[in-house]
Structures are given as structure tokens and as C-alpha cells.
């Protein structure tokens, strides 16, 4: 759901087409162009005459006398140029013309003679007889004045005039009427870069005076092709019923149909190095280039004349260059039109990008929870690469500009948000685990569970477990002896080291029941050696109790009732463990007959006078420990009898000869006892009694001595199997 929410936010933001998204899209397309610039045609059909810094140095400060440009135009025409298009607005009369000089110096004796000489502008216009010329004009902003422009070949429009998106201007800075009327065509030279100043598209049409007008490149191509009026196809002229008016679609001029953006612009696919022939203006004007060489360079071509000199202020940035003459941009557009090579962003591109973003984002949102962090990162990276590669293929194979940014942004947003959400969820789960278990498990177990929550299966599950019930003997008398606060202080002093022992032996501390402790092993983490850990914990608790009795007797801060004794019941078997309780309150605990028996065994420690009693299932798993069978008992609440065992020590005790002698004597006593051969049982018991004292279970000998004496007087039935019926818990 976090991934879907992130995807929804991305799509909502993208619907508004914010500037950062537009900038990212532009950067992606620029990158494609840098990697795969246009290779151009084998033979270019466009040339450029560049008024460069060297031309300014040789011919003087701009603007030059129009006679210089007349020479330039005439030579280009004589060399066979198809069309000459000036990326220059000749809006002012030539200040070096004879009549202008005569007007400035009317008292000069040369003034009458100057007035008889032809105007430079007239000489410039006369050069138009050699070649069709396209004169440029510049659109002005609001409040800057200007005048209306009349196109030489009016557009025909299929649909409604696309005023919604195509740039509209109030007026234009036009050439002198003499020049404009003599020119075979006129086209605007206005270039508008994007917000970052980069010119990625060339406008082929704009609206002024309620009419569409052609750009310089379009008008030059129209004249070179000998075409009539260009046809502008608007969005509502496509025949598609869902199309709304206001956007440009394409322009048809002669055999060429040029795809446009909604704003009437043409995407330019720039070449790494200009494919057009570029000639410095000074070489043509000064005669440095021969007529033959000039003819080879410009014959049959559209020749654009413009300037790269900094003083002309016609330098722009493109995806491939920080500074290039604007005339080269017009020339690149014309070259592409003539070659039929277009970059196009189809009207269905946005819908496809949105669909891909939704599919990729939703798919990743569904996959991430199943894949995990590492595979999820690989999946996200794979989707990003696939999006970029698909856009790249569309660019290189079909000339389509399909934006990879939106799908990539959707993928990144879904991955980032979902990863953060997963991290938060895991941290929350870890905090929950710590809160739930750090008071019941050893710190090491809590760290393991927090590091890998998969080891913890919440909810009820059956497990083979070891269970301990530990109780303080005579606690009621202790409670009677002390105040409630003193009882609490005593319990804290006793339970704290006992809990530490349990944690050290990998136990899960289920609960404190007054003075009793319920603990278990093999949940929530697997513990294959849980019987051994339970046995060692029980023995350590007995030793710790003795140590506490000795230590606490030497202090007065904590009340300590003399010799404290504990009884421990151990059992092993199947239990159901997990989060149990009500919907409002849960507790991680366990239930089952194994738990109940452990509690009964703890109660029998007082009867048999041994500190630790365990069931047969656990005793059989401790072959190396000092264990003896105590008796066969039917505990309260159970019908089936069970053998019970005393845990007296670990492997070292079992290896002692004294333990082996005691165990053998006690086993012989039990055998005779169950066979109802009372004299032999009594004799074996007498042999075991000294050993009982050695191991601190002298009361066990007294218990069986009383039983043998009683049963020898009142024998049980012949089928008696030696089972003792417990009457108390």
C-alpha cells in the first residue's frame, strides 16, 4: 500500500507537468542526442555563410554597407544557390548609402554628386534578381510596438487556428519596405530557448495578426521546393473525435509533412559537427574563393546567411554546444526537413509513459514484499534500465521522443517509499520484539530475534520443549513474617539472580507467579539442546540458592529468612506455545500437559526431599547427568502413572564412584520394593542411606523406610506395580 500511495502521488504530480519534470525530460532527450547525434545526409542540401569574427575584422564593424551584402548575394546567385535566406533583419536604411551621407553633410560640395548615386539598399535589392531571397523579421514582445506581417504564401488550415498553444505576437520588427517587397519570401527568425536557455526546438509557425506565419527555415524550404501555400494541420482537423482545438499537429509543404509540437515547433536533431557547408562571408565578399569553388559549395542549395561574431548577439545554446550561431539552428532545421528526418513526440507518448509508469510502479510494489531488499533493488534497477533502454530504442530506431523520466521516477518513488516503509515496519517489529521479550529472554536471544524476526513465529504452534517450574518452599511463612515491602525486596533479591541464570542458559522466562518461576526452552528460537540447558539451569539455580543463603546472612539491607530452599520441576514434551489470550491482551506463553506435569513435579520435591524432580521424557535425554529414578507416581489430575527422576548433578558427579554405588543401591531397593519383597527392599535401603546423606537427600531414605514399614504390615494387592498415588499438588 505504501508503494501504491507513492505511485499515486507521482502520477498526480506528473499530471500537472511541473517544471522540474519538464527539465528532467529535457535532460533525458539531450542525453540521447549527445550519445546519438544526427549523422546527416551524404550530400548536404543546405549551406551557411557565416559573418564570423574574421569577416568583421576584414570588412569592418557591423552593420556593413549593403553593397557588401549585394556582392555576397550576387555571387551566391551566380554560383547557383537555390535560395538565400537572411537570418538578419534589415529594418534600418544603410547609413553608408550616398543619400544618407549627403543628408548628414548637406554643405559638402560632394552632396549633389552623392545624391545622383544609387542607394546601397537599392543595389542590395537589385542583387535579388540573381537568386530568390528570404528576408527575415523578428517578433516583438507585448508593448514593444511593431507592425503586422503579411505572409507571401498564406497558410491553409485544416481545423481551427491553434491559438491555445502556438505562440502569438502583437507585432514584428520588419525589413525596410524596399527590401521586404523585393524579397521572394519572408520568415521570422525568432528563436526561443527553454527555461534553461537551450534551443531544442525551432518554431516553424507563429500567430500574428490572427494569421499563422512561417519561420525562416520553413519559408526557405518552401521556396526551394517551389511549393505553394503550406498547410497547417490543427488538432481538431485530424478527424479524431476526441481531439480538442488549440494545438498544432503538422505542416505539409510540398511533399514534406513535418510533425510539430502543440506549439508549432519542430524538434531539432543536431549533428555532432555541422553537416552543412560553412563559408566565411569575407571569402565570398573579398573574392578569396573562386567562382568554381563557390559553385561547388552552394549550387542547388539553400544558403542561410547569419553571424557567429559575438557582436551580432545571435549565439544560442543547444543540447550539443554551449554557443552556436542561431543561423546554424535554422539551417539544421531546413536540412532535416529536406532529408525527411524528424524527431517526434507523438500525441500518444504521454499516455504510454503514464501507462508504463503505472505498470512498472504497481508491479514493483507487488514484487518488493516478496523479493526482499537485495532482489527488490535488482528488480527496480532492471525496470529502470528497461525504461531507459526502451526510450533509447524508440529514439534511435523510430525518432520518437518517449520520456523515460516518469516511469523511472515512479519506480524510484515506489522503491524508496516502500523500502522506507519496510524499514520502519521492521524497526517497529524489532521494537515490539524487544518490548515483548527483553524481560523474558536472554539479551542474546532478543538480539537474534530482532536481527531475524523470521525466527519468531507468533501465534500458537506445537513444539517439543523443556519446561521448568521453580518455587520457594515455605513462602507462606516468609510472607507472614515480613511486611509486604520487605517481601517484595526479598523476591527481587532472589528472582534477579535466578532470572539471570535462566537467561544465561537460553531459557524463555514465561512469568513470575508470586514466588514461583515458569520458564521454558526451544521457543521462540530453536534450541536442539534444550534438555541439557534446562538441566544445567536447574543445577545452577540450586547452587545459587545455597550461595545466596551464605551471602545474605552477612548483610542487613535485604530481609532474608535464614535457609531458603527451592523445589524445581522439570519436564519435556509437546507444548503449544505462542501469543495467547484475548483480542485485547496477549501473552507469549505455553500450555499443555507437559506444563501441568512440571508443576506437579515441583510439588513432589517437598514429598521426596530432593531439590529437582523431572519426568521420564526428560530424564531419558540426559544420559550423562547424575540422574536416579525416584518412584512411579500418579499425580493429581492425571490417571496414567509416570516414573519420576531426581536430578542430582552433572557429568562430573555421575562419574564419581559414590554416585554409582548410591544409584545401584537405590535401584535395587526400588526393584525389591515393587516386587513386594520388603526385607530385601529394606536391606537395599539401608545400604543406600549413607549415600543419600552424602548427596543431601536423606529424607528420601526416611520416606521409603516409612512406606516399607507400612506396606509390610498392610500389603497392597498382588497386581500392585509400585505406583504411588499423590494426594496433593
Quick structural overview:
This protein has 729 residues and is α/β, with parallel strands linked by helices. It contains 24 helices and 27 strands.
Description:
The protein is of the alpha/beta class. The protein folds into 3 domains: 102 residues; 301 residues, no CATH class; 181 residues, Alpha-Beta Plaits. The strands form 6 sheets. Strands 19, 20, 21, 22, 23, 24, 25, 26 and 27 form a 9-stranded mixed sheet that branches. Strands 1, 2, 3, 6, 7, 15 and 16 form a 7-stranded mixed sheet that branches. Strands 4-11-12-13 form a 4-stranded mixed sheet, with helices on one face. A hairpin with a 7-residue loop joins strand 25 and strand 26. The longest helix has 50 residues. The two termini are 54 Å apart.
Amino acid at each position: 500500500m505504501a508503494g501504491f500511495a507513492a505511485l499515486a502521488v507521482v502520477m498526480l504530480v506528473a499530471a500537472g507537468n511541473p517544471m522540474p519534470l519538464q527539465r528532467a525530460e529535457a535532460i533525458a532527450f539531450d542525453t540521447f542526442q549527445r550519445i546519438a547525434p544526427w549523422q546527416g545526409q551524404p550530400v548536404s542540401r543546405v549551406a551557411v555563410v557565416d559573418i564570423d569574427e574574421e569577416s568583421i575584422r576584414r570588412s569592418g564593424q557591423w552593420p556593413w554597407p549593403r553593397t557588401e551584402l549585394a556582392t555576397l548575394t550576387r555571387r551566391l546567385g551566380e554560383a547557383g544557390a537555390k535560395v538565400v535566406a537572411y537570418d538578419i533583419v534589415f529594418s534600418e536604411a544603410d547609413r553608408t548609402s550616398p543619400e544618407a551621407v549627403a543628408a548628414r553633410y548637406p554643405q559638402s560640395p560632394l552632396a549633389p554628386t552623392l545624391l545622383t548615386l544609387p542607394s546601397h539598399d537599392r543595389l542590395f535589392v537589385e542583387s535579388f534578381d540573381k537568386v530568390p531571397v528570404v528576408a527575415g523579421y523578428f517578433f516583438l514582445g507585448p508593448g514593444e510596438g511593431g507592425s503586422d506581417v503579411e505572409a507571401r504564401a498564406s497558410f491553409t488550415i485544416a481545423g481551427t487556428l491553434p491559438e491555445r498553444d502556438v505562440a502569438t505576437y502583437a507585432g514584428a520588427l520588419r525589413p525596410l519596405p524596399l527590401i521586404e517587397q523585393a524579397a521572394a519570401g519572408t520568415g521570422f527568425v525568432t528563436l526561443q530557448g527553454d527555461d534553461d536557455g537551450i534551443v531544442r526546438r525551432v518554431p516553424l509557425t507563429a500567430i500574428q495578426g490572427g494569421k499563422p506565419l512561417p519561420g525562416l527555415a520553413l519559408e526557405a524550404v518552401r521556396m526551394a521546393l517551389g511549393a505553394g501555400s503550406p498547410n497547417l494541420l490543427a488538432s481538431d482537423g485530424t478527424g479524431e473525435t476526441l481531439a480538442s482545438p488549440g494545438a498544432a499537429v503538422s505542416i505539409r509543404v510540398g511533399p514534406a509533412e513535418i510533425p510539430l509540437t502543440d506549439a508549432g515547433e519542430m524538434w531539432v536533431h543536431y549533428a555532432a559537427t555541422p553537416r552543412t557547408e560553412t563559408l566565411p562571408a569575407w571569402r565570398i565578399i573579398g573574392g578569396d574563393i573562386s567562382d568554381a569553388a563557390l559553385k561547388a559549395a552552394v549550387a542547388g542549395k539553400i544558403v542561410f546567411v547569419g553571424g557567429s561574431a559575438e557582436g551580432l548577439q545571435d549565439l544560442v545554446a543547444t543540447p550539443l554546444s554551449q554557443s552556436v550561431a542561431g543561423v546554424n539552428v535554422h539551417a539544421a532545421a531546413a536540412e532535416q526537413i529536406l532529408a525527411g528526418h524528424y524527431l517526434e513526440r507523438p500525441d500518444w507518448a504521454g499516455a504510454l509513459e503514464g501507462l508504463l509508469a503505472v505498470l512498472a510502479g504497481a508491479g514493483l510494489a507487488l514484487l518488493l514484499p516478496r523479493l526482499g531488499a537485495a532482489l527488490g533493488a535488482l528488480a527496480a534497477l532492471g525496470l529502470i534500465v528497461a525504461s531507459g533502454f526502451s526510450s533509447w530504442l524508440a529514439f534511435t530506431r523510430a525518432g520518437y521522443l518517449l520520456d523515460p523520466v516518469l516511469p523511472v521516477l515512479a519506480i524510484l518513488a515506489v522503491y524508496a517509499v516502500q523500502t522506507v516503509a519496510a524499514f520502519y515496519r521492521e524497526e517497529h517489529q524489532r521494537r515490539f520484539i524487544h518490548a515483548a521479550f527483553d524481560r523474558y529472554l536472554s539479551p542474546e536471544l532478543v538480539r537474534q530475534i530482532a536481527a531475524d524476526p523470521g525466527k519468531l513465529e507468533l501465534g500458537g504452534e506445537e513444539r517439543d520443549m523443556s519446561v521448568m517450574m521453580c518455587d520457594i518452599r515455605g513462602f507462606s511463612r516468609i510472607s507472614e513474617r515480613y511486611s509486604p515491602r520487605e517481601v517484595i525486596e526479598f523476591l527481587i533479591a532472589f528472582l534477579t539472580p535466578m532470572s539471570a541464570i535462566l537467561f544465561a542458559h537460553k531459557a524463555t522466562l514465561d512469568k513470575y507467579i508470586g514466588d514461583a518461576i515458569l520458564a521454558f526452552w526451544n521457543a521462540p528460537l530453536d534450541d536442539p539442546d534444550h534438555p541439557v540447558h534446562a538441566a544445567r539451569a536447574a543445577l545452577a539455580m540450586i547452587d545459587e540458592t545455597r550461595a545466596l543463603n551464605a551471602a545474605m546472612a552477612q548483610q542487613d539491607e535485604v530481609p532474608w529468612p535464614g535457609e531458603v530452599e527451592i523445589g524445581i520441576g522439570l519436564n519435556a514434551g509437546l507444548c503449544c506455545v505462542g501469543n495467547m489470550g484475548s483480542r485485547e491482551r496477549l501473552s507469549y506463553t505455553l500450555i499443555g500437559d507437559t506444563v501441568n506435569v512440571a508443576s506437579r513435579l515441583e510439588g513432589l520435591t517437598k514429598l521426596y526431599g530432593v531439590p529437582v524432580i523431572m519426568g521420564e521424557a526428560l530424564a531419558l535425554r540426559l544420559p550423562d547427568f547424575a540422574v536416579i529414578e525416584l518412584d512411579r507416581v500418579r499425580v493429581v489430575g492425571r490417571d496414567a502413572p509416570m516414573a519420576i527422576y531426581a536430578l542430582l548433578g552433572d557429568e562430573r558427579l555421575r562419574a564419581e564412584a559414590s554416585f554409582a554405588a548410591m544409584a545401584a543401591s537405590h535401584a535395587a531397593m526400588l526393584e525389591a520394593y515393587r516386587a513386594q519383597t520388603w526385607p530385601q527392599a529394606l536391606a537395599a535401603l539401608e545400604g543406600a542411606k549413607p549415600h543419600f546423606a552424602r548427596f543431601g537427600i536423606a529424607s528420601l531414605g526416611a520416606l521409603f523406610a516409612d512406606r516399607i514399614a507400612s506396606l509390610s504390615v498392610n500389603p497392597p494387592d498382588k497386581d500392585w506395580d509400585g505406583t504411588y498415588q499423590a494426594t496433593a499438588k
